[in-house]
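ok trying this again, last paste got cut off
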Amino acid sequence: MANALHGNEADNLAISIHGSHIIIPGYYTMSLPTRALPSINYILETINSLRDAQTAYNRDSIHPPQTTTSVLAAIVHQGQAARIFDPRTYNTPIDQDLTFDYVVVGGGTASLALAARLVEGFSHSVAVIEAGGFYEQDNGNLSVVPAYCPFFAGTDPDDFNPLVDWGFVTEPQKGAEDRRIHYPRGKTLGGSSARNFMYHHRPTVGALNKWAEEVGDESYAFDNLFPFFQKSVHYTPGTVPFTNSTNTQDPNAWSPAGGPVQVSHGKYVEPFGTWVQPAMERLGMKAIDGFQSGRLIGSSYGTFTVDPQSAHRSSSETSYLASVRDKKNLKVYHNTLAEKVLLDKTQTATGVLVSAKNNTFTLNAKKEVILSAGAFQSPQLLMLSGIGPREQLESLNIPVSIDLPGVGQNLADHPLFGSEFRVNVPTISASLNSPALMVAAQEAYNNHAAGPLTIPTTGFIGWEKIPSHLRQSMTAESRKALDEAFPADWPELEFLPANAALGLQRNYMTEDPVDGHNYAWLGTSMVAPLSRGSVSLNSSHASDLPKIDPNFFGHKADQEVAIAAIRRQREIWQAMPGVTVGEEYLLGPKTQSDEEILAFVKKAVAPTWHASGTCKMGKKEDKEAVVDSGAKVFGTRGLRVVDASAFPFLLPGHPQSAVYALAEKIAADILRGEVIEGS
């Protein structure tokens, strides 16, 4: 017998539940164990919660696709595929003034790693402040199942779920047709480790040695930081045999002891990626043994933060936080907003003013306040606390405690864009065209933790410097700027093949034409950008999201690199004879001149969600530096910033592993310092 929602109850969506299938006409079919079916009231409550959250963020009413996905999240998170947990098992504190040794702002990638290390085996009391809740509860399988990671990740400002995403929107971007671009960031325990595409790799030797040189601290050199990369993760080699391709990884890159974050390859070999591998190798991107040993230039299968046993996303919440959730000296304040850091007359951080459920209170810190709120909100909180560019603070009548002009500056990200073909290998398009295939994939996942839903994308990546035949068409000024800015082992282009139609990246779930054909996308992430943007305040209130200006293609060299990247994409497509079908679907064969290609890139570009550098680490004489090599804010006592905002510059590729390593290192520094003080 079918249960159903009809008419206005579900935004005019006729959602019906038939046995083990959820049917939403014209949009989606999903299977789950019958015993897990929730009540109709539960589904309606979830829709209403999403409406309330969206209203709170002054957005338009929920569009049908957004409501549909939230309903699916609500339903399926109770099924087998979602991790079984009870938020009540965490130590839920009382909303009142309390004192801790350490107060950590943010419940994301760095903060939960750092908090876990501070409380495990020690008597320190730690409070973690997180504005969101639990993504398993608020976004269900759309956050847990690897293949569902594209949900709510598009550039359309309406493509977001306010229960797990801040809903950041950039300032109009001249380099992107004056578009205001949605910038996904995790508003949930786990932060962006609960929202990202789960890539895990390490930076190059040259990149980390450059870090050490710029901040004047050899502890950041590759060989010295490497143990902290190893300490954060546990690697499980792949068990599914590869056909038409090979997957070799350096076994010495991993520690046998490992750490809490699970890293694996998933239990599926995606067909399109197996054809990309020989094409890239043919073009000079030589096969290397993974991307974990300080080398990126070349090509290989990468790894994902996916638990190999359950095939669930492995986030800082499911790993670090779960490992210490029974510790009585850890208190997690979820659904709680940090308003500002409190400083005394000596510029010592004494606590954090927070708000929750219309109640404002103070969490006092006896030792330190640590900001890990991310590249947008760590600088925002510093400025709201009177630490930042004097002119900006005074314009909003914020008392200036420390004039620190670098706060919010130096913002960098990797521009991402791609081209598209119809292909004669099965991709996600096949499942979109065939509900039966989708049901089969879901049953393989639910019953065996296997199949295409266990990986977020192909997993194969290629990296290179721009080849000489394309580089010579760039201006001498641009070539010089790139050569001077980046070490020899730092790639300029990262190629990310996707077994899906990602199109113009507005809403990844609606880009596929669903016309009976299979589509694939070949993206380029520009991993050596020279453009720099900024983060600034909209008001003196933490609840008002900051202004974000990535300044895409603000530097002329970035425009030239983008043109070269598209031309290189076309060479890769041409190296796959028999795989592509027909002419180029996107850009289209008529787009040929540099001007036409650049116009397309501006239309299609999205961030790769790697925002970094807005609380830049550096030497005291560096006017843009905000924190020293110990992540301590200049001019203060007892205040650190530990997240990607503290990077001295944007690293090549995906920063997740470096964020974990930084958190591990600073936690070790803090604990070592306490031992020295107590000796």
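PB: full thing came through this time. The longest helix spans residues 656-678.
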